[in-house]
Amino acid sequence: MTDALRKAVVEFNRFDPAGVPWHRQRMTLILRMPTLRADAAVRYAP
After folding, report:
1. 19: closest CA among 10, 7, 9, 27?
2. pTM for this one?
3. Is the pLDDT of residue 46 over 80?
4. What are the C-alpha distances in Å from 36 to residues 10, 15, 16, 27, 43?
5. Residue 46 gets which letter from DSSP?
6. Using an 8 Å Cβ cutoff, are 2 and 9 in contact?
7. Average pLDDT of span 6-28
8. DSSP character for 16?
9. Where exactly are the structural domains of the chain?
10. Cβ(29)–Cβ(36) under 8 Å?
11. Where are the beta strands (DSSP E) in the chain?
């Protein structure tokens, strides 16, 4: 079970190398702007 979960998390977080700069910029904006962080928290809440 743990191995399957680890593989799923790693695969979910895998990005095409060409998209990494865009993803980092997006995550930086989300993590530094309270409004975007709150929106993400509500949008992805379980």
Report:
1. 27
2. 0.60
3. no
4. 25, 22, 24, 10, 10
5. -
6. no
7. 91
8. -
9. 18-46
10. yes
11. none
